Amino acid sequence: MIYQIVVTTLALTAIYSLIGVSVVVMFRATGVLSFAQGAFLLIGSLVFYSLANSNLGLYVSLVLSCLILGVIGVLTYLIFFQFAEFDLLFVSLATVGLGTALEAGATLIWGSNLFEDPTLLPFGAHHIFGHFIVTDSEVLEVALAVVLIVGLVALIHRTPIGLRMRAVANDATLASYSGVRVRGISALAWGLSAAVAAAAGIGYTLGQVIDPSTLPGIGLVVFPAIIIGGLDSIGGVAVGSLLLALIETLSATYLSSLWQDVIAYILLLVILWVAPSGLFGSKAVARV
C-alpha cells in the first residue's frame, strides 16, 4: 500500500507542479494571476489527441502540441490583453472569461464527447527496487515535469530574458522606461504559460480518457498548492504540489475522495494564517 501511495503522489506532484508553474511563470513575468490554465490544459490535450491520431508519434505530437499552445497563448495576449497590461487586476479577472471562451471554442471544434488517447506507450508495470511499481506514463509525467521546471528556472534566473520578465512583473512602467519591451516580454510569458499548461494536460491524460467537462477543473484544483508554496516561487509551487498530492492520495486511500478538497483547503487556510505569503513566497506579494 505505502509503495503505491508514494508512486501516485509523485505522479500527481509532477502534474500539479506543471500547472502551478504555468501560473507562476505568468505571474512572475507580468503580475497577472491567470485562471484560464484549465482551458489551455484542455486544448493542449485535445490538440495532442488530434496529432497523435495522425500517426505523428508520441514525442513529435507532444512537442508540436506545446508549440501550438504557445502560439495560442501569444496570440491571446496580443489580441485581447496587450493594451491592458498595466491594469493587472482587470486582466486577472478577465482570464476567468477567457477560460470560459476557450472551453466553448474547444467544444465547438472537438465536441463534448469523451476522447481516448491512442496507445503510444506500452503502459506496462515496472518494478523498481522490488516494491515500487510504476508505469511508462508515470515515468514520462515525472520526467516532463523535471525537464520543464528546471528549464524555466534557468530561463528566469540565468538569462537576460528572465531578468526582463522579473523587471516587468515588478514595475512594468519603470521597466518600459529602462528600455524593456513590455509587450514582447508579456507575450512570451503568455506563450510559455500556455505551453507548460498544455504539457500538464498531455501528461495527465496520456493513455486515459479526455473528458472536456471535467478536465479544465484541474486548473483550479492546484491553486492551494500555488498559494501554499508562494505565488512567485517556482520551487515553492513544487513543494506545495507535493503536499497537495500527498494529502489527496492519503485522503482517497484512508478516508474518501470526498475529503480531498476539504483537507487541502483547510491546510491552505492554516498556511495563510502562519505564513501569509506562502511557505516560499516573497513578502512583497500582495493578495487581494
Helix content: over 70%
Q: How widely separated are the two ends?
A: 41 Å
Tell me the number of strands: 4
- Indicate the structural class: mainly alpha
Q: List low-confidence stretches.
A: none
Largest sheet: 2 strands, antiparallel
- By oligomeric state, this entry counts as single chain
Radius of gyration: 19 Å
Question: Based on CA inertia axes, which overall geometry fits?
Answer: globular
**Strand adjacency order, main sheet:** 1-4
- Indicate how many domains the architecture comprises: 1
Give the helices and strands as they follow along the chain. Answer: HHHHEEEHHHHEHHHH
Assess the beta-strand content as a share of residues: under 5%
Mean pLDDT: 84
SSE order and pairing:
Elements: H1 2-30, H2 37-52, H3 58-81, H4 88-110, E1 115-116, E2 125-128, E3 132-135, H5 136-158, H6 160-170, H7 172-177, H8 182-205, E4 209-210, H9 218-221, H10 223-229, H11 234-254, H12 260-274
Antiparallel strand pairs: 1-4, 2-3
